[in-house]
Write a structure and sequence with these properties.
single chain, alpha/beta, 5-stranded parallel β-sheet, two-stranded antiparallel sheet, 11 strands, globular
Length: 310
């Protein structure tokens, strides 16, 4: 593991127990410049994860609980006339931060959801003919409950495609949960001290882009993507954006793990998180696999893994 990344992971694990893989994948998305959709049941530590990473990096963390009455202006801000100066002033919304936790994104109205599209894609806010750049780095981590869907708005495929990864934290093991209940400060992220400045992430992004990817690895990525397009198990296969996302995240994951080259294992470990949420199963695929994740796992079993020679 990269030494700087290990400092962050060790600090976050003072609060989040037994979820090293989830922390590494979240940091991978951050270094890739991408956003994460966390699909999980309540109470497993989604807010604590984001807050702990923000604290560790001395970044600004904002959280918004999305409900049907949340307005786009709550997210991106609004313009108003200053009664003293008689000039129009921009009032910042909740998105003015490094880490935006959009809780229960599927409970927001389509208007509020669409306001997230520009900031996730362009990293800027356009309002009244003016453009306001978001802080660097900027990352949206949205959550949704996969069980309770009453009163929710389904995320359209175009918005799902904006998320670099979809992850699940999951329940802890029995041993981990014993440690959790024995820790009095398990949810207290305010006690965490920064181990790095947020500005270091931009340098990490630059370094991760220099990670070497062989032609065999690129071909392996395209073979996986192509398999989703040609298989009768899918009604909608992965787009070229998915190819780029898997390549970028594989480079960042190699960097996070202290390497300057990508291996087939890097691709395999991220493929489900990067690709599955972008797909739509056909009736045949639903009958065979039930979930997108299992269908992608089946593809990974079928696609030939290249042999990389040192």
């Amino acid at each position: 593991m990269n030494n700087e990344i290990k400092k962050i992971v060790d600090n976050v694990e003072k609060v989040i127990i037994g979820k090293t893989d989830v922390i590494l994948k979240t940091l991978t998305a951050l270094i890739s410049g991408g956003h994460v959709l966390v699909e999980d049941v309540p109470g497993v530590g989604k807010t604590q994860l984001v807050s702990a990473i923000a604290k560790s990096l001395n970044g600004k963390f904002n959280r918004i609980q999305l409900t049907p009455d949340v307005m786009p202006s709550d997210i991106v801000g609004f313009s108003m006339i200053n009664p003293q100066t008689r000039e129009i002033e921009y009032k910042q919304g909740i998105a003015d931060c490094n880490f935006l936790l959009a809780d229960e994104i599927n409970r927001a109205s389509p208007k509020a959801q669409s306001s997230l599209l520009e900031i996730m894609e362009e990293y800027q806010i356009s309002l009244d003919g003016k453009t306001y750049n978001l802080p660097k780095p900027f990352m949206t981590l949205a959550t949704q409950n996969p069980v309770e869907t009453y009163g929710t708005y389904h995320l359209p495929e175009a918005q799902m495609d904006r998320f670099l990864m979809k992850i699940s934290i999951g329940y802890p093991s029995r041993e981990q949960e014993i440690e959790i209940i024995n820790r009095k400060s398990v949810t207290d992220t305010t006690a965490l001290s920064p181990v790095m400045d947020i500005s270091a992430i931009e340098e990490m992004k630059s370094d991760s882009e220099k990670v070497f990817v062989s032609e065999e690895i690129k071909g392996y990525i395209l073979d996986i993507i192509e398999a989703t397009r040609t298989s009768s198990d899918f009604k909608l296969g992965a787009s070229p954006r998915a190819s780029i996302a898997l390549l970028k995240s594989s480079k960042a994951f190699a960097f996070v793990n202290g390497r300057d080259y990508v291996t087939p294992d890097d691709v395999k470990k991220l493929a489900v998180n990067v690709i599955a949420h972008r797909l739509i199963l056909s009736p045949k695929g639903k009958a065979a696999y039930n979930t997108n994740e299992k269908a992608v796992e089946a593809i990974l079993e079928k696609v030939n893994v290249p042999t990389i020679r040192n």
